[in-house]
Write a structure and sequence with these properties.
Layout (H helix, E strand, L loop, with lengths): L4 H20 L5 H15 L3 H34 L1 H5 L1 H12 L1 H8 L6 H11 L3 H29 L3 H36 L1
Helix pairs in contact: 1-2, 1-3, 2-3, 2-8, 2-9, 3-7, 3-8, 5-6, 5-7, 6-7, 6-8, 8-9
């Protein structure tokens, strides 16, 4: 954020666009973009912090709606073409959890690396109501943007130079992602060991 209103507006539009693209094609580090945006906003223009939150949330929300619509309206065809989607026990278990704890599953799926797409797919294939999804995902996208912005704030607090804060925020995002993946893998192994012993 530069303090130049026109630049800042274009920066926020670019941030929202990058997050949207990353939400639709989940290969871009969208959380790191929001964290880095928070660091830059704090170093140059603290008022821009709200803009970073809104841009991150709006990009994530729009991307989720696009992915959900694709899963909802094209999910059956996709499931027929890709065999593992039809018979996947994990997807079925996810549907059951979604039915039992819809709000908590949708809220946390956005925060768990790799958790969002399977939940959106399960919700779309199960015919989860569009209006309810749109409402819950608005909260999930806001929570996601706030968490990654907080990671950026931590990076800002640790270092004086903007580039150091941005680098720290990116490293923190990677560490959170790796740690979360390791915890998920350990839980799956424990669950598999438990089911094998029964």
């Amino acid at each position: 954020m530069s303090g130049d209103t026109r630049f800042d507006l274009w920066y926020l539009i670019a941030l929202a666009g990058a997050v949207l693209v990353g939400a639709v094609l989940p290969v871009l580090p969208t959380g790191a973009a929001v964290s880095a945006g928070a660091v830059l906003a704090l170093h140059n223009n603290p008022i821009g912090l709200g803009g970073v939150l809104i841009a991150g949330m709006a990009g994530a929300y729009a991307g989720d709606l696009i992915v959900y619509a694709g899963c909802r309206f094209g999910g059956e065809r996709l499931a027929k073409r890709v065999g593992w989607l039809r018979d996947n026990a994990s997807l079925d278990a996810l549907r059951v959890r979604l039915d039992a704890h819809e709000i908590s599953v949708l809220l946390t799926s956005r925060l768990i690396p790799g958790g969002r797409v399977p939940v959106l797919l399960a919700a779309g294939l199960a015919g989860y109501p569009w209006e309810r999804f749109a409402l819950v995902d608005l909260a999930a996208s806001s929570l996601w943007a706030a968490v990654y912005m907080a990671i950026g704030l931590l990076g800002y607090a640790l270092f004086d130079e903007p580039w150091e804060g941005v680098l720290a925020a990116i490293v923190l995002v990677v560490l959170v992602t790796v740690l979360s993946s390791l915890v998920q893998r350990a839980r799956r192994k424990r669950a598999a060991a438990r089911s094998d012993s029964e």
